[in-house]
Amino acid sequence: MSNPMQTHGAFSWMELHSGDGSKAKAFYTSLLGWGTEEMEMPGMTYTVIANGEEKIGGFPPEQSDTSRWLPYVTVDDVDARIEKAKSLGATIASEPMSVPGVGRMATLVDPVGCVIALITYEAPSAE
Question: Which of helix, strand or coil describes residue 2?
Fold first, then answer.
């Protein structure tokens, strides 16, 4: 089975942006049996969603006026793909940025109004 975090074009992560993160966490952990793990990141604590041993998404700490799931798709080059998205009529909601220990990501709104994030993960470190 291929690793979606290394496969261009694969959905690889989901984030739930909401106005009530605690309520969302309680609902989904109870409904689906997901586990959560707090991860310290620059300036925030991010809650990772785990399905068994597999990390599949997260609950960001920022409040959102509109609750929504944000899917992430792995790409070969975030900056190049964002430029291509612009040429195809997308608007950029969040310019490419690097997150240490994670990778480079950006969020766009496609020509029909759907929001999606693109990400190029950092290469795993050899331990």
Answer: coil
Neighbours of 33 (CB within 10 A): 9
Task: Give the residue from 93, 70, 61 showing the smallest Cα distance to 13.
Answer: 70
- The single-letter code of the amino acid at 6 is Q
The DSSP secondary structure of 93-117, one letter per residue, reads EEEEEEETTTEEEEEEE-TTS-EEE
Contact between 103 and 60 (Cβ < 8 Å) = no
CB 83 within 8 A of CB 68: no
Q: pLDDT per residue over 60-84, tens digit each? A: 998 888 899 999 999 999 999 999 9
pTM, full prediction: 0.90
Q: HSE on the CB side for 4, CA within 13 Å? A: 13
Query: If we measure between CA atoms, which residue out of 123, 100, 120, 122 comes closest to residue 12?
Result: 120
The phi-psi region of residue 78 (left if phi > 0; otherwise alpha if psi is between -120 and 50; otherwise beta) is alpha
Residue that has been written with the tokens 């990400």 in this structure: 119
**What CA–CA distance (Å, rounded) separates 50 from 72?**
16
How far apart (Å, rounded) are the C-alpha atoms in residues 40 and 54? 18
